[in-house]
Automatic annotation (TrEMBL):
SUPFAM superfamilies: Terpenoid cyclases/Protein prenyltransferases, Terpenoid synthases. GO terms for biological process: diterpenoid biosynthetic process. Residues 450-688 form the Terpene synthase metal-binding domain. The keyword Lyase applies. This is Ent-kaurene synthase. GO terms for molecular function: magnesium ion binding; terpene synthase activity. PANTHER family: ENT-COPALYL DIPHOSPHATE SYNTHASE, CHLOROPLASTIC (PTHR31739), ENT-KAUR-16-ENE SYNTHASE, CHLOROPLASTIC (PTHR31739:SF3). It comes from the Eukaryota. InterPro entries: Isoprenoid_synthase_dom_sf, Terpene_cyclase_plant_C1, Terpene_synth_N, Terpene_synth_N_sf, Terpene_synthase-like, Terpene_synthase_metal-bd, Terpenoid_cyclase/PrenylTrfase. Its cofactor is Mg(2+).
Length: 753
């Protein structure tokens, strides 16, 4: 069943089909022929209107949402205007008028969703209907009220005189007919494809007034693509395909469609390099393309986003409309910041404030149509990209997924070849399948703890669930089982070893463990000084040998020696810190930094797991500068967050960390809070540097799949340590563990209604 679902989703990439718009088709139908002004230029659109009136007399989407009556009223009135323009379809007109009369109260209903420009366009069409001598059978006071509202809206736009207001008035030009509109002035917004704003209705209104050959060329191309009707925006291929890619990635099922996604991104990148207007004249498309292309390692500059500071955004159409969706995309894009891209920091700051303000107003919670964007905003603010784990992100996306895919511009539309039910079905099945595998692996880790007697170490933290959680939540695909088990077991062992060197063992035991690892082969009972060391050494030896044996299948070489060296590096760095504590020595900042990124203990967790990700890692690459630099920058980020958040706990335990070092040696730091500010700045700088290293392709020898593991660990640091000492505070992680490992997902019943 899932294979059939995958095939249907794969087919969604082949061709973008948007639902046609009765509203825009009506405006195209009103364009007169150049040679015979008494005849329509597009008679096929007129025929479509005659054939597609709904049974209640309206025009619009057949499965109309109850909160989209304004949308339907606009589509119906435009269709009536088109039919009256050519004096045909009298019965259709009368049925349409009856629908408008009986639903007119919705025009002023604040609960109804208002399409873009409705308060100008709908009254403008009413004025045209009145000029044609048509009686709407609506009270004059009601008509005067909405016409007055239109005048107020026009006055607001004109008084503003900002570029954003000019763009808005141009976009809704069809609603300003007969108001002294300078139609030639509109052509300064004409795009290379001949359209105005990629909007068939705006372009048709201009074509009817100006007979502009480029407007007509655009309209012919749209009608040619869709047959005898048009969508509300064209082209929207890049945006729509990127939305599909984004959905599959956020739902955790993108790995099933790698070739299809690569094809979309290659095409998008090509369009980006050619400065395609479809990308660069739409903020949402531009920001989403930047984010997804950068995330996938395409060499792409953020300079294009520099124009969208708060003032720059306000001078756009989206800015004038206070388009929450566009700001959300800018906010998401701003998180893919590299060193020296300070304007993305500013963008992140103002977009965050904008989104918080919109949430606080409650307007996004007003109805079901707004609820989806409200949830997306809430998630984006609470869980930024760099402080998230894949599986938590996937679960939230699945729980909030909108199968309807309805979007609204001047009128509502949806991609008709996208089946949201197929997508969510695969996502839920895939999540639950992976979760079942993860639970089995967790039981294996728990058995391993007991078999190696690690539960007998009274001084050590027993964190097998959380050690496994970080593996399952980032490397969740079934085929990465070896990587997850290596990660979880080594993570558990690092906690035990760390506790031994943090005061759980004697100096003799600490030295003895190092000696045993250095000897490795031929260790006998007489070489071991205590039961604690015996338990730890044999657990290490068994686990490292297991990793080495499994890695042969993946790497076709023995990596055991390298894994032993990784462990020795960690234990020796732990020993150095233990000696500092025992001898009451506060190392210099440089001494501490040179040791602390290794003692942070990510080496044995991350580095052996890379052998099980898939790509071949030669010994040269695994011991090379790039590989080590990725590890170092990642660890510096985690170390600084951990030191600040764990300062109080470690001080109570008689240990010390980077906060003590700064307080002792840095003349600019006199309080814990000042140390925290400095350490956060280092962590954030390291995060950007790591992103740069991960995304870098030129001269890079480390495979991207391996780099992603370094980045995923960095995201875990932000999640665990940015606001609390998460690893040491079990209650902070229990909820996440349940979500990833224990609670299966279900498909909401209303999805099938």
């Amino acid at each position: 069943q899932s294979e059939g679902t995958k095939e249907r989703i794969s087919q969604m990439f082949n061709k973008i089909e948007l639902s046609v718009s009765s509203y825009d088709t009506a405006w195209v139908a009103m364009v007169p022929s150049l040679n015979s002004p008494a005849s329509p230029y597009f008679p096929e659109c007129l025929s479509w209107l005659l054939e597609n009136q709904l049974s209640d007399g309206s025009w619009g989407l057949t499965d109309r949402h109850p909160l989209l009556v304004k949308d339907t009223l606009a589509s119906t009135l435009a269709s009536i205007l088109a039919l009256k323009r050519w004096n045909i379809g009298e019965e259709h007109v009368n049925k349409g008028l009856r629908f408008i009369t009986s639903n007119f109260a919705s025009v002023t209903d604040e609960k109804q969703h208002t399409p873009i420009g409705f308060d100008i366009i709908f009254p403008g069409m009413i004025e045209n209907v009145q000029k044609m001598g048509i009686n709407l059978h609506v009270r004059p006071t009601a008509l005067n009220s909405i016409i007055h509202k239109k005048e107020m809206e026009l006055e607001r736009g004109t008084a503003s005189n900002s570029e954003g207001s000019k763009l808005y008035l141009a976009y809704v030009a069809e609603g300003v007919l007969g108001n002294g509109h300078d139609w030639n002035e509109l052509l300064k917004y004409q795009r290379k494809n001949g359209s105005l704003f990629n909007s068939p209705s705006t372009t048709a209104a201009a074509a009817a007034q100006l007979q502009d050959i480029n407007c007509l060329r655009y309209l012919r191309s749209v009608v040619g693509r869709y047959g005898n009707a048009v969508p509300t925006a064209y082209p929207l291929d890049i945006y729509t395909q990127l939305c599909l890619v984004d959905s599959l990635e956020s739902l955790g099922i993108a790995r099933h469609f790698t070739s299809e996604i690569k094809s979309v991104l290659d095409k998008t990148y090509s369009c980006w390099l050619m400065n395609d207007e479809e990308i660069f004249l739409d903020i949402s498309t531009c920001a989403m393309a930047f984010r997804i292309l950068r995330m996938h390692g395409y060499d792409i500059s953020s300079d294009v986003l520099a124009q969208f500071n708060e003032e720059g955004f306000s001078n756009t159409l989206a800015g004038y409309l206070k388009d929450t969706g566009a700001v959300l995309e800018l906010h998401r894009a701003s998180q893919f910041v590299l060193p020296d891209e300070l304007y993305l920091d500013e963008q992140k700051s103002w977009s965050s404030e904008f989104l918080k303000d919109e949430l606080s107003k409650g307007s996004m919670h007003a109805n079901k149509l707004s609820e989806c964007i409200s949830k997306e905003v809430n998630v984006a603010l609470k869980h930024p990209y760099y402080a998230n784990m894949h599986r938590l992100e996937n679960r939230r996306s699945i729980e909030n997924y909108d199968t309807n895919n309805l979007r609204i511009l001047k009128t509502s539309y949806r991609p008709i070849n996208f089946d949201g039910k197929d997508i969510i079905t695969l996502a839920v099945e895939d999540f639950n399948l992976c979760q079942m595998i993860h639970r089995k692996e967790l039981k294996e880790v728990e058995r391993w703890v007991k078999e190696n007697r690690l539960d007998k170490l009274a001084f050590a933290r027993q964190k097998e669930v959380f050690c496994y959680l970080s593996a399952a939540a980032t490397m969740f695909a079934p085929e990465l089982s070896d990587a997850r088990l290596s990660w979880a077991k080594n993570a558990f062992l690092t906690a035990q070893v760390d506790d031994l060197y943090d005061g759980g063992g004697s100096r003799e035991e600490r030295i003895n463990l190092i000696e045993l690892l250095e000897k490795w082969d031929g260790v006998s009972a007489t070489d071991i000084c205590s039961e604690t060391v015996e338990i730890l050494f044999y657990a290490l030896q068994n686990t490292i040998n297991e990793v080495g044996a499994k890695a042969i299948k993946w790497q076709h070489r023995d990596v055991t020696k390298h894994v032993v060296e990784i462990w020795l590096d960690l234990i020796k760095s732990d020993m150095k810190e233990a000696e500092w504590v025992i001898n009451k020595i506060v190392p210099t900042i440089n001494e501490y930094n040179a040791n602390s990124y290794t003692s942070f203990a990510c080496g044995p967790i991350v580095l052996p797991a890379l052998y099980f990700i898939g790509p071949h890692l030669s010994d040269k690459v695994a011991r090379g500068h790039e590989y080590h630099n990725l590890f170092k920058v990642m660890s510096i980020c985690g170390r600084n967050y951990n030191d600040y958040q764990g300062f109080k706990r470690e001080a109570e335990e008689g240990s010390f960390n980077g906060v003590h070092v700064l307080l002792h040696h840095d003349t600019d730091v006199s309080t814990v809070e000042e140390a925290g500010i400095k350490m956060r700045a280092i962590a954030e700088s390291s995060t950007r540097e790591l992103m740069k290293l991960v995304l870098q392709t030129k001269g890079s020898a480390v495979p991207r799949a391996c780099k992603d593991i370094f980045w995923n660990m960095c995201r875990i640091f932000h999640l665990f340590y940015a606001n609390t000492d998460g690893f040491s505070s079990a209650e902070e992680m229990i909820k996440d563990a349940k979500a990833v490992l224990y609670v299966p997902l279900t498909i909401p019943g209303e999805m099938w209604e």
